[in-house]
Amino acid sequence: MTKRGNHTRAANRVAKVIAKYSTGKSDLERVDKAAYYVSLFADRDWYTMKGRYYDKAYGVFIAKEFSCAGIADALQKVLHYMGFKAKHVNKNKFTHQWCTLKMDGHRGYADGQAGFANYGRYFTKKNQMILTPSNSIYFKKLN
Question: Which CATH number does the domain housing residue 44 bear?
Fold first, then answer.
């Protein structure tokens, strides 16, 4: 653990490394790769809504505890270092959280917990989640 006050700097260092290696031919490929990399941290972390850092990027990257709030915070930080203006959706609410942003001139979304990104809306108007995009790294790893 880092000393109190250095948590943001520690999380920023990890976010910068992820941003550096999130390459691709299009914005969508880059963002999808970033979401996938962030999801790999969650895969090794402990899910909690009561941990000290559950809602912060530091929790995801360093303290090994997370919730969708912390993952959205972590992914937003990575996207910032990649040059995107991402919005953290449902911040400070007890519901699923992700990021929205503009990629390749289109509005889209990225979810670090699910590990993918795509153009369009993440949820349908009836609040149903969209299926994993077939062009995502996550989908390709499953098949």
Answer: 3.10.620.30
pLDDT digit string, tens, across residues 35-75: 999 999 999 999 999 989 999 999 999 999 999 999 999 99
What confidence tens digit (pLDDT) does each residue in 77-114 have? 999 999 999 999 999 888 889 999 999 999 999 999 99
Written as one string, the DSSP assignment of 43-111 is HHSEE-SSSTTTTSHHIIIII-EE-HHHHHHHHHHHHHHTT---EEETTTSSS--EEEEEETTEEEEEE
Q: Is residue 1 part of a domain?
A: no
Q: Residue 45 is part of which domain span?
A: 7-142
Q: What is the total count of domains within the chain?
A: 1
